[in-house]
Design a protein that fits this description.
The complex is a heterodimer. Chain A is mainly alpha-helical. Chain A has helices at residues 2-5, 10-30, 34-58, 63-92. The chains are: A mainly alpha, B mainly alpha.
Amino acid sequence: MLLAVAEVTPAWYLTLGALLFTIGAVGLMVRRNPLVMFMCVELMLNAVTLTFVTFSRMLQDVNGQAVVVFVLVVAAAEVVVGLAIIVALLRRHPEVTADDLKVLKG
Amino acid sequence: MVELIVFLIAAAGTLAGALGVILNRNPVHAALSLVGTLFGIAVLFVAQEAHFLAAVQVIVYAGAIVVLFLFVLMLLGVDRAEDLSVEPIKGQRVVAGIIGVGVLCLTLVALASTSFEATGARPAEGDRNLRVEAVADVNQLGESIFTDHLFALEITSVLLVIAIVGAVVMSRRVKRDQLIEDPLVAAAEAEEAARREAEEAAQTTEPETEGADA
């Protein structure tokens, strides 16, 4: 009954994006494992890409999708560099958490 | 109707995966939950007729980034579970929750003030990308990237090269004598030395209690 009347509007997608962004932000603040914090950043990036695609469709403007392509590239570069830092870090201190990283020297 | 069902399933998968990322104690399980979120997003891209982006999402994110995460987790053996019951900084979770609610309210208010009435509206000035009425397909996307965003595209290629070089430089093994002095290691070594010294002192002063200590 409810399914028959409800229609998916762009606002639904945008709300989902807002929820996803919030979950990612809270996870980034709560978790201490650097790898899990990185995954939370990926969640936030995905929320933003979802929002971009939704607006791209709403406004019939392909530039929104072009931005998403660049976000993907930047996310890939960010993950590569970030994981390299984490690998260098964890190799020397296997138990390290974000709280212990008071210095940036490898 | 179909779009609604697709949306509900994909949204449920996306949110469940996101919650799995932040609630799973084991980082490997968190990475696998992340795959659920990424696939859900890809399905939502298809539902919004962004087919190319959906394919790229699956290939780049689920195929490359999550695999990279899993490689790091498993090769370094850092996949032990984190104890989520302790709260290392007092009040951290409460503050994080408050900030989270704040972010959610902010985004939803921004949404309510713009998108609900702007559905389907077009920008005032005509752009040549807007000339086609139909939903953007991959041809238009390619045209947009390789004409309007050509400079940005070239810059991203430079960015990728820098990222590769940076990753190789940072993850190479450093020789022992080239190591920069590390406060964490120095503190641990000093602690160990002090402990050993104290043990030796105890042994020399009270040799008869050695058996009891051991």
